[in-house]
Design a protein that fits this description.
With 171 residues, the chain is an alpha+beta fold. It has 4 helices and 10 strands. The chain is elongated.
Length: 171
């Protein structure tokens, strides 16, 4: 008539849930380890990277295989973005514009420091912005090549490696 309830039933449920949580945690750790190994291999081996070439921008650039290319259809091929598909806080924008817009670009930035860098034999101005929380303006490269102004901005662990992989092609 009355059902007998085992006095340790909550203990058994607690053990079962603990085992399930531990297995789930171990699985997540293993997946993260595989992802980390893949990403580390790709970042350490730039010769395994993909290459994107844009005739409209007149450049080619190498990027990690886990990244993706995004296009803004409103820009008519005058810009593209490289984005880390596994970490959307890492992205780099490449844009080409007219030389006379350099003062406008500079006035829109809060510049904290600037240094000269060489990209495929061309002098580039690497601008560090004061707005460290805004990756679009805290790491900017302005470069003139064949009468055009290149604007490269973004934030990524391998930003410098990606930028120095740029090669200019026929414009």
């Amino acid at each position: 008539m009355f059902r007998i309830i085992h006095p340790n039933r909550w203990f058994f449920w607690a053990i079962a849930l603990t085992i399930m949580a531990a297995l789930f945690l171990l699985w997540n750790i293993q997946e993260a380890e595989y992802e980390f190994e893949d990403q580390a291999l790709a970042e350490m081996e730039p010769n395994l990277w993909k290459t994107y070439a844009s005739q409209a921008l007149g450049l080619s650039v190498r990027y990690p295989p886990s990244w993706q290319i995004e296009f803004d259809p409103r820009q008519d091929g005058q810009s593209f973005s490289l984005e880390n598909a596994k970490n959307f806080s890492e992205s780099i924008v490449f844009q080409i514009t007219e030389l006379n817009l350099e003062p406008v670009l500079r006035s829109s930035l809060k510049i904290s420091s600037e240094k000269t860098s060489i990209i495929d034999g061309e002098n580039a101005q690497w601008i560090y912005g004061k707005a460290g929380n805004d990756p679009a303006t805290s790491n900017v490269i302005i470069l003139q090549h064949k009468g055009k102004l290149y604007y490269i901005a973004g934030s990524a662990r391998n930003f410098e490696t990606i930028v120095h992989s740029i090669k200019f092609i026929g414009l």
